[in-house]
Structure formats: C-alpha cells, structure tokens
Amino acid sequence: MSEDVAVRGTARPRSPRGSGEQLAEEIISATTDLLIEAGTEEKVSIRAVARRVGVTSPSIYLHFEDKEALLDAVCARFFEQFDEVMMHAADGIDDLFERALAQGMAYVRFAIDSAVMYRITFARITPPGKPTLTDEVLLSSAFVHFSDTVEALMAEGSIPRGDVVQTVLQLWSTAHGLASLMIAKPGLPWGDDLELAESTMRAVCRGLGNQ
C-alpha cells in the first residue's frame, strides 16, 4: 500500500466561520480510519489525511503543528474511548477482586477489538520527562480506574497497604501483556471467550491479597 493510503476524497466546500473545532474532529477521525486501513503510521501522510477530509494540507497544519502532533491527538482520542469502557467495566460489581478482574478483562477485550490502534498507540515511545497528550489521557483513564480499585482493596484490608502505584502497575502490566501477546499471536490456544486471559487476570487479582 502506498504512503498516501486511501486517498479518496472530494473538494470540501468553504467552512462557515467558527467550524474549526469540527474540522479538527474530522481530521482526527479521518486519520484514525487511515491508520486502521494502513496498519501503520508510516504509511499515513498529512497529504493522505487532507485528501480524505477534502481539504488542503495547509488546513491540517492550522490545527496540528505536524504529523507527530496529529498522531498524538489521535492516540489521545483512542484512550478517551478506552476510558469510557473502563469507567463502566465494573458497574454493579460489589466484590472488589471481581471488580479488578472486570476492569482487567475490559482492558484486554477493548485492546483486542481495537488491535491496530492499540498496537500503534503503545508503539509510540515517550522520552523520559516529556509526557505527551496521549500519556496524560492514559494516566487519567485506565490508570485511575485501576488505582481506585486498588485503593479500595487496601482500605477494606483485602490486600496489604502499600504503594498503590506499584500494585496498579502489576495489574496494568498483566492486562497489557495479555492484550499485546493475544494481538501479536492470535493463533495460540487462548481458549473460548478469552478463557486463558481471564484465568491469568483472576490469579493476579487474587494473588494481590497474598503478598
């Protein structure tokens, strides 16, 4: 597939005054679609995005400084959707260990269902001390939901009090590791309905109480 993947698009009529925010949203949406189609950010150019939206390349730069800034916004939007899933994953679940399990499995399922964007987003390396918009959104979504559950488990005495961040990283690493491996190696015997992933997450969640 060429760099300008899926260049179909038509000339866009002049936008009414005040529609810049809407155009930015369309640019993010178009870039997301192109990334999913191409499977890699290297094959998606600013020119391809402009053609998909129906604007000129300079119009893209009015909203995003460069391709890196655009990709950062796209990945941040992906994690906002992730946040919605995590937010409701444990609705109606009173048992805190089961809540942690539900959050972990919601994480894995969302990642698998959005495999291309998940892989692209986590392949982006953050320089030390230079968090991106994507990092900020991620740390205010998945990390926060895991943190709330861990803090509640510690408060009720189900797991030893300790470093919340370290415990969250154990849960997060397990969910991320499972998701990444299942995306990279879907042919392995994961079992029906992610059976192996669930048993692994359950073991880690219950194991927190034995530390």
TrEMBL record:
It comes from the Bacteria. GO terms for molecular function: DNA-binding transcription factor activity; transcription cis-regulatory region binding. Residues 21-82 form the HTH tetR-type domain. The keyword Transcription applies. The keyword Transcription regulation applies. InterPro entries: Homeodomain-like_sf (IPR009057), HTH-type_TetR-like_transc_reg (IPR050109), HTH_TetR (IPR001647), MT1864/Rv1816-like_C (IPR025996), Tet_transcr_reg_TetR-rel_C_sf (IPR036271). Keywords: DNA-binding, Transcription, Transcription regulation. Residues 1-22 are annotated as: Disordered. PROSITE patterns: HTH_TETR_2. It holds the Pfam family TetR_C_33. Residues 45-64 bind DNA. PANTHER family: HTH-TYPE TRANSCRIPTIONAL REGULATOR BETI, HTH-TYPE TRANSCRIPTIONAL REGULATOR RUTR. This is TetR family transcriptional regulator. It comes from Gordonia phthalatica.
